[in-house]
Sequence to fold (319 residues):
Amino acid sequence: MQPITRRTNAPRTPQGAADLDEFDAALIRALQADGRASIHDLAIQLGASRDFVAQRMHLLTHGGGLRVVAALDPGFVGHHVLVHAKVEVDGPIAPIAEEVIQLPDAVFVSMTSGPLPLVFESRHGDGHELLDMLDHVRRLPTVRRVLVSTYVEVLKGFFVSHGQTDIVLDRIDYELIAVLQQDGRTSYRALADTVHLSPSSTRARVQRLIDAGVIRIAAIKSGSFSRNRLAIGVGITIDGPPDPIREFVMESPYIDFAVRCHGSYDFIATLVSASSSQLLPAMDAMRGLPGVSALDSWTHYDIVKEDYARTLGRVLVRE
Fold:
């Protein structure tokens, strides 16, 4: 019996800038869902030829700012306080952004639109670490105020697992993680050569780390946003039940990141698409949800830091 294929039509080759933008956005989204998906599986999923998928991935990863990396789940390394902060600056943003970049607990820093044009995410072991960091930021020249929301639950996030299994890591696990943090698509053959195991044993090791919630492997696209990736941050304040908002953010294909939080906002989400014509209706739909009392938004202009790999060093020191 011949195997059943999911593709009924011939592979398509997108034509024109708009088609390429849409295709690249779909490719990035697929790699965010599974950073180690094979070219073959990506081609089937996207309805394109393997050669075309490989070509677009090469262009995106060599000059397009796309990286596929592994990151440790923050809870696994003892980071139980995760926050989102918006900074008001009196003057140029870049000097303050450069200062925040240097903070080891800041994993995401972006220059944005709006009256608070610097956004960052940081992760901490406890509330005292958080307060020390916030005191430092508030003392920076030209910083006028910092608005903070503390994450209660990550609803969508490529580098936060939705459950963890008790697991003890050994030297080989750490060596694999270290390589995958640099390139999450490193072949099992290359990984096997690094740790001196067979490719099958190496594959089993990596899958064990993923299944246990220790690491997530996904695509991130740093730097200035391009035609194929427009990102808008949204802060939602509610005056009613949170269930309609939770359901919406979980089901929307345009929301890549969403958290339930307290502080400045009750929910924070990031909407990503190749076109504002897709994002604006999604934002209007959120405004119309029961319980939404206010919605703030900001456009991400330039991600100046996105580093989820640094925490491995702390783990190795403890071991």
